[in-house]
Amino acid sequence: MSENKIQKVAVVGAGLTGLTTAYYLKKAGIGVQVFEKADRAGGVIKTYNKDGFTFEAGPNTGVLGQPEATELLENLHGDCELEIADEAAKARWIWKSGKWEPLPSGLIGGITTPLFTFADKLRLLGEPFRKRGTNPNETLKELVLRRMGKSFLDYAVDPFILGIYSGDPAKLVPKYALPKLYRLEQDYGSFIGGTVKKARQPKTDWEKKATREIFSVKGGLENLIKALVKNVGKDNIVFNCDSISFEKTEKGYKVNNRNEVFSNVISTVGAYELSHLFPFADIEKIIQINQLEYAKVVQVSLGFREWKGVDLKSFGGLVPFKENRDLLGALFLSSFLKNRAPQNGALLSTFLGGIRKPEMVELNDGQIVDIVKKEIVEMMGLKQFDPDMLKIFRYQHAIPQYGIESEQKLKAIDQLEKMNPGLILAGNIRDGIGMADRIKQGKMLATQIISQSK
Question: Is the pTM of this model over 0.85?
Answer without folding.
Answer: yes
